[in-house]
Amino acid sequence: MDGLDFWGILHKLLSGRFSFSVCLSLPLWADKAPIIRKIGRSCLCPSFGEESTACEACLRIEEGSHPDMAVFAPEGQAYTVSQVRQMQRFVGSSGIEGPRKILFVERAEMLGRLAGDALLKTLEEPADGVRIFLLSPSSYALSPTLQSRCFRLNLPAQALVEQRGKPFELPPLDSGASMTAFLKHTIERQETRDLAVSCLCANILKGVVRVGQRDPGRSYQWASRVGALAGRLLNRDLPSLQTEVGVLELFALQREIQAWESKSSYLQS
Predict the structure, then answer these.
(1) Helices marked H in the chain — which ranges?
(2) Domain-wise residue ranges, the chain
(3) pLDDT tens track of the chain, all 269 residues?
(4) pTM score of the predicted model
(5) Which CATH superfamily groups domain 3-164?
């Protein structure tokens, strides 16, 4: 599915009559704000998603002041039950400017057991006209009970690039120079791409193995993500742009694992 197909299918869902909950997978490095605004416009614009600078609803969405759209982020290290109650009050009331309301939950993998359990009924049976989007690096990072209440959508690589409205840029990294060299080597030299990707995945999996000694469940999730990315990148027919995006996802995953290891070591010390 390319970017155009993704937005077309999503628009049909958003402009329909049904209420639903979605887990939308977005890489950690993705710029989420433009994606959230575009989904919001498609859902709440009176012209059913036809973007117009003259549309007051779209302008309020751009400003983050539309009363029928809410975006939540975790407080500290995890979502609280109090935040979930706020979400439920928002989706439980009628739309102010129209029949639809849309709720975005960023970093939904940070919904702990208590907060996640409190949200289950809302996800399973959203009120009329309500659309709920759980944003997470992977749907598999959510608890199985949350996964079972949502449709799963992955934003295609092309759509990630299109939403930026400018050429793809590398995320800031301490090892930016070495990563840029890795990307150049991987993209421009097809004959060495398999070896380069395999070495990077092997390095990441060493960290996954270490994590498994402390948290087997988390280790399994990360190993699954590495396997899925490696399988995609080892396809020699993959366009260079999607190869670049996939490699960046691997680097982001590596940083995520390293951050978890650092935090875990600190807490145990």
Answers:
(1) 3-14, 32-44, 56-63, 81-92, 113-124, 144-147, 157-164, 176-188, 193-212, 216-233, 240-268
(2) 3-164, 176-268
(3) 444 456 666 776 676 666 788 888 876 656 788 888 888 888 888 765 455 556 888 888 888 889 999 999 998 888 999 999 999 999 998 888 888 899 999 989 889 889 999 999 999 888 888 999 999 877 777 888 888 888 887 766 555 545 444 433 333 334 444 555 555 555 555 545 665 676 677 778 888 888 888 888 888 888 888 878 877 776 656 666 677 777 778 888 888 888 888 887 766 65
(4) 0.59
(5) P-loop containing nucleotide triphosphate hydrolases (3.40.50.300)
